[in-house]
Amino acid sequence: MGRRAFGLMACVGLVMAVSVSLSAGSAEAARKKKPQPIPAYATSVAWAAVPGPSLGAAQPIGGYAAGCIAGARPLPPEGVGYQVIRLSRQRNYGHPVLIDTLREFGRRVAAAGLGTALIGDMGQARGGPMPSGHASHQIGLDADVWLRLDLPPMGRAGRERLDEIKYVDYDRMRVTADWSDRQARMVQIAASDPRVARIFVNPAIKLAMCQRSWPDRGFLNKLRPWNGHDGHMHIRLSCPPGSPQCEAQAAQPDGDGCGEELISWLDSASPAIEHPPGHQPEPRVVRKVPAACRTVLNAAGTRMASLPESAPATVATTR
Ligand SMILES: [Zn+2]
After folding, report:
1. pLDDT tens digits, residue range 197-235?
2. What residues contact residue 223 under an 8 Å CB cut-off, 6+ apart?
3. What is the set of domains in the chain, with CATH numbers?
């Protein structure tokens, strides 16, 4: 091959190489532009449809607002000092430590003569994002407990249609006249459990708790002011021992939290936006759900363990 011919071929080769790399570059750009498909484990649709918990040991995976739980258990629909409301939502699942904590909480509420606690949403059978309501409650360590204590033990169907009593007067940013010692003592019982990391309550409720005299004020540190939470408290447990995939939250600042931070919450609080009944929210997408949750979503599992007497039979295929 003469020098010229080689030079020509090298030149052609160079052009080809450039065009290959150009087309690779534009493919890369196109890939970047095109939205990536959303994996099923990142959408609320998939998690709301699972027929029951996965088998095996309980394991919270990820963070409270982006994760899932393997091996969750249902809280029995009723027990000493508590009853679960709105069972048809099938959100009465959690880590066994959450189940134990709530059962003991019920026993202590009963022993204190406070009435029957109403347990609201916990988590879905395998956790994950929910189509409506909470951003968190995803790893089986969160539970909402209503603050009203005026209802006797009821049938499951009757517990489907209850209204929260709201305890905050937003004009004054103080609790209403309905707030009583009974609510305060119930919140204190929940916060005194060492398994509980924090409890979200309305700033006006935190203020009412701060203004009471308590023999030991240590538990007040766990009460975190948050918007909404005027008819229920949101109990959050710490990651239980033996949960290496559970993402703990940063520790709270020291002190009872009754000072400046609370004042700033009181100044900025507003009622939560409530959707009318029957409101159909868009499915929720949480891209930070760990990929390990794909296995949990697809694992073999058990069927739904608890449904209200009145609920239609659910076709449950295990997977
Ligand atoms: Zn909650």
Report:
1. 999 999 999 999 999 999 999 999 999 999 999 999 999
2. 187, 191, 198, 199, 201, 205, 206, 209, 257
3. 51-164+178-188+229-248+287-298 (3.30.1380.10)
